[in-house]
Amino acid sequence: MPKRIIIVRHGQTVENKQKILQGHLDTLLDDDGKKQAQAAAELLKNEKIDLFFSSDLKRSYHTAQEVVSKHKNKKIQTTSLLREKYFGKFQGATYKEIGSYLPKFGEQGNFSFQGREKEFGVETNEDVDERIRQFKKILETHKGKTVALFSHGGTIRRMLEVFGIPTSVIEKMYIHNAAPVVLIKKGETYVLKE
Predict the structure, then answer these.
(1) Which of 8, 39, 135, 186 has the fewest CB atoms within 10 Å of its CB?
(2) Of 84, 117, 123, 152, which one is the catalytic site residue?
(3) Residue among 13, 45, 43 at smallest CA distance from 29
(4) Is 84 marked active-site?
């Protein structure tokens, strides 16, 4: 496994601002999101990053492109394994619209589908975890490397759990747009860099 994993959520989109659930919708960075991606690139320009992986959705890929532009001769490997959760009938809906089916959805970080994922065609957390475990097998071949991953807020939360970060820590975190979260390998698991 890599010695360091730098995880970056995509920059802001219009849909983020409008509280629209994007899921697999292929949305673009807005002007603020482009600035956030440029700021992430500046922040990470002196890091020795061996490999770059990104969700194949444009908002993550374009964020990754900004960062890679500061690293000579590096390429981005895209994968659908790093995509956001698939939100079924709710993709493109506002939190308010979803609230008519699921009370308090989107309030104070409440993104629970209350066990009704199958009913609404929503990917379960277990399904997302399985995608991340598949991706983790790819990372196993990059022992001792530093890798950068570009993904989505919900997927990053699931990723942190799969990589061994305690749920109690993750629940207190806000995954900011284009703000790197760094994991350091410690034994068989990872810890958050402070």
Answers:
(1) 186
(2) 84
(3) 13
(4) yes
* Residues 76/52, Cβ–Cβ less than 8 Å: yes
C-beta of residue 127 within 8 angstroms of C-beta of residue 24: no
The Cα-based distances of 25 to 1, 59, 151, 194 in angstroms read: 31, 10, 14, 33
More confident residue, 70 or 105: 70
Cα–Cα distance, 90 to 170 (Å, whole number): 24
Q: Tell me the chain's radius of gyration from C-alpha atoms.
A: 16
Q: Which of 10, 62, 71, 152 is catalytic?
A: 10
Per-residue pLDDT of 103-145, as tens digits, reads: 888 877 778 899 999 999 999 999 999 999 999 999 999 999 9
CA distances from 52 to 32, 60, 75, 149, 155 (A): 23, 12, 7, 6, 17
Cα distance between residue 9 and residue 67, in whole Å: 12
DSSP three-state, residue 13 = strand
Structure pTM? 0.95
